Amino acid sequence: MKKTILFSLMLVLALGLFSCKGKEKEKNSEQNKSTSESTSQGSLEFDESYANYGVEFVYNGLHYCIINHNSVVLFYHESHQSLSGYLVIPSTVTYNDATYYVVCIDDEAFSGCESLTSVTIPNSVKVIDAEAFQYCYSLSSITLADGITNLDASAFDNTHYYNNEANWENGVLYIGNYLVATREISHCSIKKRTKYIASYAFMGNNMLRSVTIPNSVTSIGEGAFEDCSSLTSVTIPNSVTEIGKGAFSGCDGLTSPVYNDHVFAYMPKFYSGAYTIPSGIKQISNGAFSRCNNLTSVTIPNSVTSIGVAAFLDCTGLTSVTIPNSVTSIEHDAFSGCSSLTSVSVPSRTEIDTPAFPEHTKIIRQ
User: Fold this and answer.
1) Whole-angstrom Cα distance, residue 299 to residue 301?
2) Could you report the per-residue pLDDT of 4-13, keeping only the tens digit for each?
């Protein structure tokens, strides 16, 4: 099955924490959006101005695509199906005397490699995308370095490791320091030393009522608790500095805002009226206030430095927002769909990743 590389900016604009979905997929209906010359999200950057951008090449039997001057994505190729035994993903590869870091294992890159038994992934890899090793039925040993910042919960579905009951702990699957996937459980006390909760790890678990997150966790992936409608209690420890878009979307049982000392993660959709974000918060995470239709005004404290992707998406009742001088970046679609927001003052030092506001909104630089 031949896959086609289509590196469009929708890859990084899509839904918050970067997903390197470089292949043609039905998941993303915005595949034809134009790209800017250089775009970054999280730890990865796509730079179309680089001369070798988009060049595909083979290195030691694996297929790569160049995304900037020092980075490549490892992507699907049918020849990968013949891989067997022990696989070590290299941290760097060489093309035309230039060295590139391997930063992403693309979706389905090794899907269906039924004879693969072991894989080691280096610290250079930041993203392991959806279904990357799905249906690798013999894959029983997985070694992940600590560099991963975005891991999809489906990456290792239906591997030997996934299907081995001995690897599940109270309905939770871990690989090293990563919480990868969960089953239908009513409470989860995430084990200590866990650093990352995978994207969509708890998604759709309607039984989940409470979760305890240890202070070892530093990052919560996109949609990690999406549609956990019975979830009524969660405390984000101050160790967490990154929360992906929609991490708590659809958690209608949460009646209070979710945040820690650094990141504002979630505002219940039924909130009505004005709101002042607590002082000390540094980041408004992706999608934190999205579709809070009855939110009328928001005051952002001088501690906030970044407003995430779709942070206030479709807040149709929002008429006023105060953006302080501390804010250095406003990500794309941060206020898209805020139909009642007619004007907003933005500090001159603040970088705006367009489109961040509705077309009718007058932006006053100050």
Assistant:
1) 6
2) 333 333 333 2
142-147 own/partner pairs: CB under 8 Å, 24+ apart:
142/118, 142/175, 143/118, 143/119, 143/176, 144/175, 144/176, 144/177, 144/178, 145/121, 146/177, 146/195, 147/122, 147/123
Give the three-state DSSP class for 165: helix
Q: Tell me if residue 117 falls in helix, strand or coil.
A: strand
CA distance 260 to 15: 22
Choosing from 200, 235, 254, the residue where a domain stops is 254
Q: Can you say how many angstroms the Cα of residue 64 is from the centroid of all Cα atoms in its chain?
A: 22
Predicted TM-score of the model (pTM): 0.82
Q: Is there a domain that residue 172 lies in?
A: yes
Tokens of 89: 């993903």
C-alpha 17, offset from chain centre: 3
Q: Torsion angle of alpha carbons 62, 65, 66, 67, nearest 10°?
A: -130
User: Is residue 45 within 8 Å of 127, Cβ to Cβ?
Assistant: no
Give the three-class secondary structure for 78. helix
Residue 154 falls within a domain, yes or no?
A: no
